[in-house]
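Fig. S4 source data, part A: sequence.
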Amino acid sequence: MQMDITTLRILATLASFVTFIGILAWAFSRRRAKAFEDAGRLPFEQD
């Protein structure tokens, strides 16, 4: 099978899209919500 530049571009686009969806799933997962809330409060805490 010969790989041309179009096939490589399609594969790169698909890999980028899958990575993007994975990051979204990780960022909005319920398991991470508490850790993100705690991290969001860090700048407002007193030493």
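Fig. S4 source data, part B ends here. Helices lie at 5-27, 33-41.
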